[in-house]
Amino acid sequence: MRIGTVRRPPRGVPKEEFASRDFYDVWLPELAPSQELVRQAQRAETDREWQRFAHAYRREMSRPEARHLIELIAALSRRTDASVGCYCEDESRCHRRILRALLEDAGASLAPDPGPSAQRVEKH
């Protein structure tokens, strides 16, 4: 199962075509940073600025609705393969790396961390 964790869906692609056009199977924008945080992440040039974004994103993901989804994905990961993705090319400066840590904290069964050069976070 491919889980899209982006705030906005691909432009011009109807929701019912996300899977058939090979974007993702399930769209969970609730696990994406808010639009304000997306802008903050895009402007982050230093490690300190990125850490401020990471802290704010973790705070957003501590809300009950986000925690429930993280716990659901963690539970599913113990029974099926899944991958979490977005549009960022560099995972080291992407919310996916933080989301991976949150999933791990919630007890998700994860593949070994592929490192900062990986393009996607996958669970096997």
What does this structure look like?
The protein is 40% helix and 10% strand. It has 124 residues and is an alpha/beta fold. The chain has a four-stranded mixed beta sheet, covered by helices on one side. It is globular.
Radius of gyration, CA atoms, in whole angstroms: 14 Å
Main β-sheet: number of strands, strand sense, barrel status? 4 strands, mixed
| Helix share, percent | 25-40%
Q: What ranges have pLDDT less than 50 throughout 5 or more consecutive residues?
A: 117-124
Q: What structural class results from the helix and strand content?
A: alpha/beta
Task: Give a brief description.
This protein has 124 residues and is α/β, with parallel strands linked by helices. Helices cover 40% and strands 10% of the residues. A four-stranded mixed beta sheet has the order 2-1-3-4, with helices on one face.
Write the layout of secondary structure elements.
Elements: E1 2-4, E2 26-27, H1 35-43, H2 47-61, H3 64-77, E3 82-85, H4 95-105, E4 121-123
Parallel strand pairs: 1-2, 1-3
Antiparallel strand pairs: 3-4
Helix pairs in contact: 1-2, 2-4, 3-4
Descriptive key words:
alpha/beta, four-stranded mixed β-sheet, 4 helices, 4 strands, globular, disordered C terminus
